[in-house]
Design brief:
312 residues, alpha+beta, Uridine Diphospho-n-acetylenolpyruvylglucosamine Reductase, domain 3, 4-stranded antiparallel beta sheet, globular, binds flavin-adenine dinucleotide
Length: 312
């Protein structure tokens, strides 16, 4: 499918990226690897007047260890992150999530920032305009009703494999925009509303993803139809230091969420897994039934916590 017409601009630094963005009066999109954005443009889900390519912006590259934190540039490619020394040993949940994200060809193109800012997905929405025309516009298209469940809320699915892994590692993100710089816990990036899933201001650029530099034990497991090149229909991560940890769940609703776990008893594990399952909001907008995905939250969460906390 052919792309529509738009201007293509390469920014050399952040300043130039903001200037270019201002020039196109908020009708521009930032481009990283393009593996999420370009298919959306081809399906005519968005029609920007310009793409501002961030690949040449040096400030967004590289991985640093500084003052007890690992700071990962948002333009770092998933493949490069996966192969970075010590990622596997110190952050196993992240490494395992990287390993099962799509396929290595896409990992060599897709970036960490782009992964976190990928749009939510829905079986009824991620289709060609021709196919979408079969029904009225849904909430995400500017209509007044969800085509999946018929209600007034959008539960399109946030399918990032990186988000649960980074939430389990107490990840933060740094955002820089025309109004200045801010650093927020990753979970605050999400609105919980599939129509507009991110709390990111017009023109803001994600610059870094920051995690505490400590040795963790952890695991990640995803539910998908195929074993590669497939989005998660549920992604569960667990990371721990000593007897305390964080369980995080993604791809069962418009935002990922987490629970702090401070005991390793069987009772605590079962209770946390039960809460996580109750909290998840899968609906009939993917190829797997919502009830099955909801039940699998508990199954996988218990499996991961037992493995990491009890060494099973
Ligand atoms: C076939 C296929 C399979 C896939 N499978 C998976 C999977 O299994 N798991 C998974 O998690 N994902 C999957 N993806 C989604 C996607 O490819 C990856 O998430 C990838 O990491 C996105 O990164 P990108 O750099 O290509 O993002 P882009 O497409 O360049 O950008 C994504 C969005 O983020 C914005 N953006 C990007 N960087 C910044 C920044 N620094 N600041 C502000 N805004 C920014 C863009 O404007 C755009 O809206 C899949 C995609 C495809 C096509």
């Amino acid at each position: 499918m052919r792309l529509t017409e738009f201007a293509y601009k390469r920014a050399r630094d952040l300043e130039e990226a903001f200037t270019l963005y201002g020039h196109f009066e908020e009708k521009a999109f930032f481009l990283a690897g393009g593996t999420d954005l370009v298919p959306r443009l081809k399906l005519r889900m968005q029609k920007p007047t310009a793409l501002i390519d961030l690949k040449g912006v040096k400030e967004l590259q590289g991985i640093k260890r500084e003052e007890g934190f690992v700071r990962i540039g948002s333009l770092v490619k998933l493949y490069d992150l996966k192969r970075t020394q010590d990622i596997r040993a110190s952050f196993p949940a992240l490494w395992l999530a990287l390993e099962v994200t799509s396929c290595e060809t896409l990992q060599m193109r897709g970036t960490l920032g782009g992964n976190l800012l990928q749009e939510t997905r829905c079986l009824f929405y991620n289709q060609s305009r021709f196919w979408r025309n079969a029904a009225d516009d849904c909430l995400k298209m500017g209509g007044d009703k969800c085509n999946a469940i018929g209600g007034q809320a959008c539960f399109s699915n946030y399918c990032s494999d990186m988000a649960p892994a980074l939430l389990s590692l107490e990840g933060q993100v740094s955002l820089v925009g025309p109004q200045g710089e801010r650093q927020i816990p990753l979970h605050e990036l999400y609105t919980g509303n599939g129509e507009r899933p991110f709390r990111i201001l017009p023109g803001e650029i994600m610059t870094e993803i920051i995690i505490p530099d400590q040795r963790t034990r952890g695991a990640y497991e995803k539910l998908s139809l195929r074993r590669s090149i497939d989005y998660p229909l549920l992604g569960v991560a667990f990371s721990a230091v000593g007897k305390t940890g964080r369980l995080s769940v993604g791809a069962v609703g418009p935002r990922p969420f987490f629970y702090a776990v401070d005991r390793s008893s069987e009772e605590a594990i079962e209770q946390t897994a039960e809460h996580a399952s109750e909290h998840s909001t899968p609906v009939t907008n993917t190829v797997l039934p919502p009830l099955y995905r909801k039940r699998m939250v508990k199954v996988i969460a218990m499996r991961l916590m037992r493995k990491v906390l009890q060494g099973e």
